[in-house]
Design brief:
It is a single chain. With 486 residues, this protein is an alpha/beta fold. The protein contains nine helices and 25 strands. The chain folds into two domains: 374 residues, TIM Barrel (Alpha-Beta Barrel), CATH 3.20.20; 96 residues, Immunoglobulin-like (Sandwich).
Length: 486
């Protein structure tokens, strides 16, 4: 019997799949692939394989309304195209004007699509993050899914959307457990996935649903999945994001200590936002849809959590997703390289992928997707099992850049330098030149300069170890310097 993706036995921050070490990377996350009938997920998954992207995310029980921000998201299907795990039987109509759901009747079309998706993803070596639940964000959005109080014929539901993420409503929680049981048993045969309990859970109003109540709900579901799979052939990893909160009901605070330590999931998912907190330190990783770069704090968070025992997944990065242009894509290219060289995994939502366009636009294919393929091809030359993020290697370098270093001392050094300036700063995106001073172990090394944008490499001279200086080729935005011991 084959084995599901697992944490690598020799490196706690890396995954193992088909007996090979794996870093998760994608610029194509599209979590509405199953729920949205017109979306051609076969073309989408085959394109992921073609472009070297080995990861996607799948929502099972959530939908959004069309909005001015990303109106064509696969998570925003037209009501007749929304495919739920439950049959629409009526009597009566739901909030979207169609028949109410029966929570005791499974929808065969949904599960047929789910199995087809998983089989194709497996054949394409794409790892799927299966997200069981999501924050519904408002009572209006809760009314669109089968668990809305007026959306089913079973007489269950919550009047407040926050309660959906707790165990307060026994009737709703009972059906949540039945849903989890169904999904876990249906998917147990597949190797190419892990579970996520809930997407972006937030305690908006503590008196309705507190942080502890929401985290306890998540922990109960983690335990339930583990107990259920203990009697099934395969055991799968579980990812979690601890509950966020609002300070003084205004400022979002996304604590992460419990994700690494208290909650017993295997993987920590972090959505890189403007106030991620770890050990009482706040990291500003960028405002939602802001086109901010915030490269240093993104890097520093990954480095500061490196010694934690769980893999860190920078999940659903959307700091510039709505900007389907060279600038927005360049921001995410820089963030992806920085995250990987700082010891974490990276997932970006590409809004150029929509219904009837499952492989993106010509522009996103030419730029974004090629750039991420370049990352994948370069990472294949890096020993990610013996390697780790390194500090104290790059001593001096042009002041416009931020450095991230990953490697194995004495064997290989991979130094990523990126223009760290925000879009509004003077000189951002202009040609950078100069030299870099490094402190590396003694030895003989061959030097390679690699362009993340063009995917081209230029061999430099050989160099000795110790304290050395290298003249950099002129570059825009970013450059990788690789030193390999001869």
């Amino acid at each position: 019997m084959t084995s599901p993706i697992r944490i690598h036995p020799l490196k706690k921050k890396v995954f193992e799949y088909k007996r090979k070490p794996v870093l998760l990377l994608c610029a194509t996350e599209h979590y509405g692939s199953i729920m949205n009938r017109p979306f051609d997920f076969k073309k989408y998954l085959e394109y992921c394989k073609k472009t070297g992207q080995n990861y996607t995310r799948l929502f099972l029980l959530f939908r959004e309304l069309q909005t001015p921000v990303n109106p064509y998201s696969t998570c925003k299907p037209e009501s007749p195209d929304y495919i739920s795990p439950y049959v629409r039987s009526g009597p009566g109509t739901s909030a979207d004007g169609l028949l109410k759901y029966d929570l005791d009747s499974w929808n065969e079309e949904f599960f047929e699509r789910l199995h087809n998706f998983m089989k194709i993803a497996s054949g394409c070596d794409v790892i799927v993050e299966v997200t069981l639940f999501s924050n519904n964000y408002s009572n209006e959005l809760l009314s669109l899914i089968p668990f809305g109080i007026d959306s089913n014929i079973n007489g269950v539901g919550d009047e407040k959307f926050e309660i959906f993420m707790t165990m307060k409503n026994a009737g709703v929680f009972d059906y949540q457990i039945k849903f989890v049981q169904k999904i876990v048993t249906e998917l147990n045969c597949y190797d190419n996935f892990f579970f996520e309990i809930c997407n972006e859970q937030v305690s908006f109003t503590p008196e309705i649903a507190s942080v502890d109540e929401i985290n306890n709900w998540q922990q109960h579901l983690i335990d339930y999945v583990r107990n259920l799979e203990s009697e099934l052939p395969k055991k799968h990893l579980i990812a979690v994001t601890e509950c966020w909160k609002f300070h003084n009901r205004q400022t979002l605070v996304a604590d992460s200590d419990a994700s690494f330590n208290h909650l017993t999931a295997d993987i920590v998912n972090i959505h890189p936002l403007e106030n991620i907190v770890y050990k009482s330190k706040s990291y500003n990783m960028g405002l939602f849809m802001s086109k901010q770069l915030c490269l240093k704090e993104l890097r520093d968070y990954c480095l500061d959590t490196w010694n934690e025992s769980k893999p860190l997944n920078i999940d659903e990065d959307n700091v510039a997703s709505r900007f389907k242009d060279y600038e927005g894509w360049t921001i995410h290219r820089k963030r992806a390289w920085t995250v990987l060289f700082s010891g974490a995994h990276y997932d970006y939502i590409d809004f150029s992928i929509v219904n009837y366009c499952p492989t993106g636009t010509p522009d996103s294919q030419e730029h974004l997707h090629k750039w991420f393929k370049n990352i994948r091809e370069f990472i294949s030359s890096v020993d990610i099992i013996s390697g780790s993020p390194l500090t104290g290697v790059a001593l001096n370098f042009p002041g416009e850049v931020l450095e991230s270093v990953f490697g194995t001392p004495g064997k290989q050094y991979n130094i990523y330098i990126a223009d760290k300036r925000e879009l509004e700063e003077y000189g951002q995106g202009e040609i950078i030149s100069g030299e870099i001073e490094l402190e590396i172990k003694q030895g003989k090394y061959i030097v390679l300069y690699y362009s993340p944008e063009h995917g081209t490499a230029v061999s430099g001279n050989t160099t000795d170890g110790g304290r050395i200086k290298l003249n950099l080729p002129d570059f825009r935005h970013d450059l990788v310097i690789q030193l390999k011991n001869l």
